[in-house]
Design goal:
Strands 1, 2, 3, 4, 5, 6, 7, 8 and 9 form a nine-stranded mixed beta sheet that branches. The protein contains five helices and nine strands. The chain has helices at about 25, 45-60, 70-80, 85-95, 180-205, and strands at about 1-5, 20, 30-35, 40, 65-70, 100-120, 135-155, 160-165, 170. The N and C termini lie far apart (about 45 Å). It is an alpha/beta fold and about 200 residues long. Helix content is about 30%, strand content about 30%.
Length: about 200
């Protein structure tokens, strides 16, 4: 996809960070986490959703939580005629599985866009400060990825944990492993988010 744009570019840092809200008091009573199949607001391959789901499953396993995987949860829900995730349904999931919390994940943005960008004399670019005496047209590729995570308490439907990657769009940088493709940025972000989740849980225990 290409767009023609005349802008003065300010480059976003390629390092993703995570916004985390965690109720550690509520988390202390959770021993088992049931994972709902991850979803997306955009059209994605199942493998991408599965990779994201596995990343957070492995993070909870690393923290010594018991995990009920999404395929097992689907079987339990079908067996108990549960087809939605209202507060009452989440309570029923807790009773049927023994889980103390239910994990939801949603990818809201996933896109690669190449734009034609006009750099003006004196504009700031990623690698230099340009003082050329003429305008310069370049192709700039950006990668967009955002995932939102929620961990919901089966006792009352309250959110124990919410997470999202703060930086959802970066500019391509071929020399940086995290930023040379959309796939690389997605995997880098998931690795960083799950790592920060584990670190945050350790700090608050």
């Amino acid at each position: 996809m290409k767009h023609f744009t005349l802008v003065l570019i300010l480059v976003i840092s390629g390092c993703a960070t995570t916004d985390i809200t965690l109720n550690m008091d509520a988390m202390k009573s959770v021993k088992t986490v049931a994972i709902v199949p991850f979803t997306s607001r955009v059209n994605l391959k199942k493998e991408i959703l599965g990779e994201a789901e596995d990343s957070f499953k492995n993070a909870f396993l690393k923290m010594n939580y018991k995990v009920i995987e999404s395929n097992k949860l689907n079987e339990v829900m079908k067996g108990n005629n549960i087809s939605s995730f209202t507060v009452e349904d989440i309570k029923r999931i807790g009773k049927a599985t023994g889980a103390g919390a239910v994990l939801f994940g949603e990818i809201t943005d996933y896109e690669e866009v190449t734009r034609e960008v006009m750099f003006y004399p004196g504009s700031i670019t990623q690698n230099m400060f340009s003082n050329k005496g003429h305008d310069e047209l370049k192709y700039i590729t950006t990668y967009t990825f955002r995932i939102i995570i929620r961990l919901v308490n089966v006792a009352d439907g309250s959110e124990i944990l919410t997470m999202k990657n703060r930086t959802k769009e970066i500019q391509e940088e071929e020399n940086l492993q995290c930023c040379n493709s959309l796939e690389a940025y997605r995997r880098y972000t998931l690795d960083k988010m799950t790592g920060e989740l584990v670190d945050s849980m350790k700090e608050k225990k």
